[in-house]
Specification:
The protein is built from 1 helix and 19 strands. The protein is an all-beta fold and 294 residues long.
Length: 294
């Protein structure tokens, strides 16, 4: 739950109220308080599929309380489980918590606080040798079908060319360089690219898309790249940001390892924090992307 800051000099704190119906009475409905410096509060213990209603009040240093704010409502939705091939919540380790156990090996990055302030619940990359490597798995090969890559990322302003996810390799089907990756370019935009380069020329069979806005601002953002097979969509913080038609479709399947925070060759080092990576073997719909952003 987020709100605009109160500018009164004698502000003491905020009170958050929760109800189950529109126009609920705030009497006895307080579910928490927030410091005067806060502009957000995490509401836990909610049930997916149930609508909740919220109001906010400001309290001054003498205990006087403002009238309740306008009402806001929300309905939590469970993150989609169908098609999930890897999930890295980074809760104290880098294990895959999907059913596929695509576990990884940490080389350098350290555990840090996540976007909620929970300790040891994200990984911090310093851009100097840090990466997390996941051994190749056929579950990461999607053929020409749809797939989705998503993560929460806090990219430092100094990140240029830093890769979040990177998977490529010479396939066993012959001499061909195939793969996909996400990175931040020199303008701070998040870029996705998938390619099938049969002649190793470096530019054949490639489809790419860049977000319309810079996101290397040292703030947590949610990114999702959805490949429908004939088009690619990029979402930022739950909203569609850009899309492009696949000009040169082809399978990016390969036998290379998945690398988080760098390329398979050790370049493209990411600087910042990464958390809650999910990879799906299908194209998620917009409602599912919003559920992941919650």
């Amino acid at each position: 739950l987020t709100w605009d800051a109160n500018s009164e000099s004698d502000l003491s704190h905020y009170i958050v109220y929760q109800g189950n119906t529109t126009g609920f009475d705030t009497t006895g409905a307080a579910v928490g308080s927030a410091l005067k410096s806060a502009t957000s509060a995490l509401i836990s213990g909610l049930s997916n599929g149930t609508s909740y209603h919220f109001k906010l009040a400001a309290v001054d240093s003498t205990g006087n309380q403002s009238a309740a704010s306008n009402e806001a409502s929300a309905t939590p939705i469970a993150p989609p489980a169908s098609g999930l091939v890897a999930y890295y919540p980074f809760n104290g380790n880098a294990n895959d918590e999907s059913a596929n156990t695509n576990n990884d090996t940490v080389h350098g990055p350290t555990l840090a606080a996540d976007r909620f302030g929970n300790p040891n619940s994200a990984y911090s990359f310093d851009g100097v040798g840090d990466q997390i490597a996941v051994a190749h798995s056929e579950s990461f090969n999607f053929g020409t079908g749809g797939y989705t890559l998503e993560a929460w990322v806090n990219a430092a302003p100094s990140t240029t060319g830093g890769h979040v996810l990177h998977k490529r390799g010479n396939t066993s089907q012959g001499t061909s360089l195939r793969g996909w990756y996400t990175l931040f370019d020199s303008e701070g935009r998040n870029v996705f690219s998938a390619y099938n380069d049969p002649n190793l020329t470096g530019d054949q069979g490639q489809t790419g898309i860049a977000s319309s806005q810079s996101s290397t601002d040292g703030v947590w953002h949610h990114f999702a790249f959805v490949n429908h097979g004939d088009s690619v969509y990029v979402y930022i913080d739950g909203l569609l940001d850009a899309w492009v038609s696949v000009i040169t479709p082809g399978s990016p399947d390969n036998d290379g390892d998945l690398v988080i925070g760098a390329t398979d060759g050790g370049g493209g080092r990411f600087i910042g924090l990464i958390d809650d990576i999910r990879i799906y073997n299908r194209a998620l719909i917009e409602l599912e992307i919003k559920a992941l952003y919650q």
